[in-house]
Amino acid sequence: MDIGKITFLLNDEPVTIYADPAESLLHLLRDQLGCMSPKEGCGRGECGACTVILDGKAVNSCLVPAGKAAGKNIRTIEGISDGKSVHPLQRAFVEKGAVQCGFCTSGMIMSAYALLAENPAPRQEEVKRAISGNLCRCSGYKQIEEAIMTAAEEMNENRVRFVEKEQKE
Ligand code: FES
Ligand code: FES
Q1: How far is the CA of 137 from the centre of ligand 2 (A)?
Q2: What confidence tier does 54 reach under pLDDT thresholds 50, 70, 90?
Q3: What's the chain's Rg over C-alpha atoms?
Q4: What is the mean pLDDT of residues 104-110?
Q5: Which domains, ranges and CATH numbers included, belong to the chain?
Q6: Is the separation of the CB atoms in 20 and 28 below 8 Å?
Q7: Hey, whose CA ends up nearest to atom 3 of ligand 1?
Q8: Residue ranges of the alpha helices (H) in the chain?
Q9: In this predicted model, what pLDDT tens digit does every residue of 125-144 receive, in sequence order?
Q10: What are the residues facing 75 on neighbouring strands?
Q11: For 88, how many CA atoms within 13 A lie in the half-sphere containing its CB?
Q12: Is the pLDDT of residue 1 over 70?
């Protein structure tokens, strides 16, 4: 095992760690950095439970070698809210009953977060496609899709309100 120095941003905070660059980003996050929201389901890119955002793209962190994180910005669910209030996606998942056992939830939300960053007003088929790599064993896809659409609407309304307020000031 070759241990190397890896420096990257985790939720906008600089991190420097010594690790085997060939180990998975998932294990680096969970075992060395105590970031437990990405879950290990299949460990081979099939379930999406380990989804994080790597420089704006949703990725299966179980398939990404830790060395690939060097110089990048990694975002997990811990980094999507400001710490004072929950993100609209988190709120909508709870309100729409899209969280059952919760194992898939952080991966689902990270896939949705990446989608809404690129496409703030997705159609239902686009939502379905964005979460097609995220499996939910509790079969809550209808509620999950509703939650993502609801969060998108709320975020767009907030954006409109913000722009109107800026224009008045
Ligand atoms: S644990 Fe990574 S895709 Fe299943
Ligand atoms: S809520 Fe249980 S796996 Fe999705």
Answers
A1: 5
A2: very high
A3: 17
A4: 98
A5: 4-79 (3.10.20.30), 88-168 (1.10.150.120)
A6: no
A7: 45
A8: 25-27, 88-95, 105-118, 124-130, 141-168
A9: 999 999 999 999 997 799 99
A10: 53
A11: 19
A12: no
The number of the ligand 2 atom at minimal distance from the alpha carbon of 108 is 4
- Say which residues have a Cβ less than 8 Å from residue 85's Cβ, sequence separation at least 6: none
Ligand 1 near 105 CB (within 6 A): no
Exposure string (b/e) for 35-72, b if CB count within 10 Å is 16 or more? Answer: bebbbebeeeeebbbbbbbbeeebbbbbebebbbbeeb
Q: From the CA of 47, how far away is ligand 1's center (Å)? A: 5
Q: What is the C-alpha to C-alpha distance for residues 52 and 50, in angstroms, rounded to an integer?
A: 6
pTM here?
0.94
Ligand nearest to the CA of 45: 1
With a pLDDT cut of 70, the percent of the chain lying above it is 99
**In the structure encoding, which two tokens stand for residue 111, read together?**
């896939």
Span from the CA of 139 to the centroid of ligand 2 (angstroms) = 7
Angle at 96 between CA 86 and CA 92, to 5 degrees: 25
DSSP assignment of 31-69, as one string? IIT---SS--SSSSSSS-TTEEEETTEEEETTTSBGGGG
